[in-house]
Design brief:
The complex is a heterodimer. By secondary structure, chain A is an all-alpha fold. Helices cover about 70% and strands about 0% of the residues of chain A. Classes of the chains: A mainly alpha, B mainly alpha. The interface between A and B is large, with 107 and 108 residues.
Chain lengths: ~325, ~280
């Protein structure tokens, strides 16, 4: 408990300092003439400074180290043999026999899960737009997966799709949709499908909440005007709804794609990459390489490539959608 | 088609759709919950699956606390998540306010910087951090984990907080300023109370983010008495044997606090992000 207090004191002191400084600025007890221009200019930066420091410390510094690691022979198992080795790690990476499979898996996984959760989430938001009795409670339940950890969701799916004791097999057998049990997690190809389903389940509320907020922001008058002009449901959707929520759609799609691409805790919990790397994606593969063989150099090289892929993707995505307000939602 | 029939059809379709989503969420939760109350022989019975526990037992929960030190895990998770939540909320109020209320040079760059942080694969930071934290003597401490959670959850929370601030009319503050309030006082006494739902929402986001995290916890924390809930429970997944009953019990218990928090505040998020929610 005393540690908790220590952490809090650490940050509260920083924040309090800024609060205090700000408090004196433009205080009503001080004549306005004395406030000088320079202070006004640095004011916004001061607000953001603490955030910036944390991010720089925890992202900037490690990231630089990652770049260095990627060009080094760095194995925790051989601490005396750490040296610069050029592009060896990258060469090793691309000569890996699994790498093509892993790249293919990553694309299937990202595309299928993002498309699934986006469509289901948007549909849910549209269905929730009009108020009905009990909507508050309904939302509280249906948005719950957002609060779920990947760990528990993973367990849930792993248990439900268990080959012997799983409820999915049992139900499919009961309804005569199957003649014999499927080893969902032991069959190449199908195990990745289970991961995708779990990811979709977890991701629907994010799209639903963000898009619902955007939908509710559309002024009712716009619809009324369109109705007078004789718009049908379909026309209303494409002429009004879609253009209005386009910014939200773009930002949520971009963010979610990045998050889904980078997250692999579901994979670790449900399949652990198996059977035989068939459900391994790039980040989970990197994790396995880094912490099973402790080859940090190789893992960092892979990580750098991932980062580049995401940066290129984001730039292309934002320019294709012609949207320049990234990070705005 | 008769407009009345059309309306009924649309209503039914909407009802079926909403029911589908409800079941898709509730059935899996039901399934893990009842598994937690089953006896082990009933759980691993390939012949017959029971859809309601035949013998209702609390053994899984009892064993969880007695044999696997769940109480300790709970305490660790509460410490790390609460401190992460509080600090992120404070930092987000400052950062979000700065981004929402000022025009300044480099603002767009800063937003892009936030977006960039989201692109960094977590594991790419975890590897060098593992080395850095080891050198700083912070490996295997809650403080190290707290710092990581702080950084990871911060960008999204700052941006969300900014959106909440932007929904609050500036005139509210100006009025206070004219009455002689200092900038900080108008922020603390006028804006923050109106913002309260948004602040709760950001706290919950950060809390949930830290509460649920698995990978960094597994890597940074090695001694069992320091484990957070997901890390501790993961150790129950053996290579050959998985203790399903106990895992489910632990999972369900871990869900309760975050599920309740989220259920309470989800409305705040939707309302807070809806434009024009606060009328001038």
């Amino acid at each position: 408990m005393e540690k908790l207090i220590l952490y809090l004191v650490f940050l509260i002191v920083i924040c309090a300092g800024i609060f205090l400084w700000m408090h004196n600025r433009q205080g009503h007890f001080r004549p306005r003439i004395l406030t000088n221009n320079v202070k006004a200019k640095i004011e916004p930066y001061l607000f953001i400074l603490p955030v910036f420091i944390v991010l720089l410390l925890m992202f900037g510094n490690p990231l630089i180290n990652s770049f260095i690691l990627a060009f080094e022979n760095y194995k925790l198992s051989a601490p005396n043999d750490i040296r610069f080795n050029g592009v060896d790690n990258f060469v090793k990476l691309f000569s890996d026999s699994d790498i093509l499979l892993v790249i293919k898996n990553s694309f299937v996984y990202v595309f299928a899960s993002v498309a699934g959760q986006f469509l289901l989430g948007l549909t849910l938001a549209l269905a929730l737009k009009k108020n009905f009795r009990g909507r508050g409670i309904y939302q509280a339940i249906v948005f719950l997966p957002w609060a779920f950890s990947a760990f528990v969701t993973g367990l849930m799916f792993r248990w439900s799709f268990n080959g012997e004791y799983g409820v999915v097999n049992d139900l499919l057998l009961k309804f005569n949709l199957l003649t014999e049990r499927i080893a969902w997690l032991g069959t190449p190809g199908i195990s990745l499908l289970v991961v995708i389903l779990a990811m979709i389940w977890m991701g629907v509320p994010f799209f639903a909440i963000m898009n619902l907020a955007a939908l509710q922001s559309i002024p009712a008058e716009v619809y009324e005007a369109c109705e007078i002009d004789g718009c049908g449901i379909v026309k209303k959707f494409f002429k009004i709804t879609l253009p209005y929520i386009k910014p939200t759609i773009i930002t949520t799609l971009l963010l979610r794609t990045i998050w889904v691409f980078n997250s692999f805790d579901l994979i670790v919990v449900i399949t652990n990459g198996g059977p035989a790397s068939t459900s391994q994606t790039l980040p989970s593969y990197m994790y396995t390489r880094a912490f099973s063989s402790y080859d940090f150099g190789l893992a960092s090289a892979l990580g750098i490539i991932l980062l580049l892929v995401l940066v290129v993707y984001s730039v292309v995505f934002l320019s294709v959608t012609n949207y320049n307000k990234a990070g705005d939602f | 088609m008769n407009p009345k029939i059309k309306k009924i059809l649309a209503g039914t379709g909407r009802f079926l759709l909403l029911t589908f989503y409800l079941l898709a969420v509730l059935l899996p939760i039901y399934w893990i919950s009842i598994t937690a109350f089953k006896t082990t022989p009933e759980i691993i019975n390939a012949q017959e699956l029971t859809y309601f526990p035949r013998t209702f037992t609390l053994d899984n929960f009892r064993e969880l606390f007695r044999m696997y030190n769940y109480g300790e895990m709970l305490k660790n998770s509460v410490i790390v998540s609460t401190s992460t939540g509080i600090c992120i909320t404070l930092l987000s109020i400052l950062g979000g306010y700065g981004l929402a209320r000022y025009k300044f040079r480099g603002k767009d760059t800063m937003l892009i910087f936030f977006l960039m942080t989201q692109m960094i694969p977590g594991i790419l930071v975890i590897i060098p951090l593992y080395i850095i934290l080891t050198q700083a003597g912070l490996i295997n401490t809650h403080f190290g984990l707290f710092l990581f959670y702080l950084a990871v959850n911060l960008p999204f929370c700052v941006i969300t907080m900014r959106s909440f601030f932007e929904r609050i009319p500036y005139s509210l503050e100006e009025a206070a300023r004219v009455d002689g309030c200092s900038k900080m006082r108008s922020l603390l006494e006028i804006v923050l109370p109106v913002m309260f739902p948004g602040i709760v929402a950001v706290f919950v986001f950060a809390f949930i983010g830290a509460w649920n995290e698995l990978i960094a916890g597994t890597i940074f924390i090695s001694s069992p008495d320091m484990w957070t809930i997901p890390v501790g429970l993961k150790s129950l997944i053996g290579k050959y044997e998985v203790k399903w009953g106990i895992l489910m019990a632990g999972g369900v218990l871990a869900l309760l606090p975050t599920a309740i928090m989220f259920a309470v505040m989800q409305k705040f998020v939707v309302d807070g992000l809806t434009a024009g929610a606060v009328k001038e």
